[in-house]
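Support reply, case 0932

Customer input (verbatim):
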Amino acid sequence: MATLKIRLPEEIDFASLQLSRDPLTRQISFEWEPIEALCESSGIDADIFLHGPQSNVAGLLVAWYAEHIRSGGQRDPVADQMLIEAITEAQYGEARVQPGAIAPQ
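Our regenerated output:
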């Protein structure tokens, strides 16, 4: 898997994503504009996340959240769930985790 270097525009922060999760479907929703801004400032084709495998955008969100927390940002309950799911999948395999779908709003 390729590693992407991202640059976050100063006017965008993790909270700009406005993460939410449907309690019945467990689908995670978010605002797409912050990801587009991140991609534009980083020289990355946003289609990697919009039209690529769901794991692309999930990986971006988890990595962004981890950096957000390392930098002293406030915790987000939906992102905490995503992070726990990502750690569990890495440790036990995807088949042993019942994740929700991840999609832009």
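We compared this against your earlier run and they match. Two observations from our side: The helical segments are 33-42, 47-50, 54-70, 77-92. The chain has four helices and three strands. Please reopen the case if you see a mismatch on your end.
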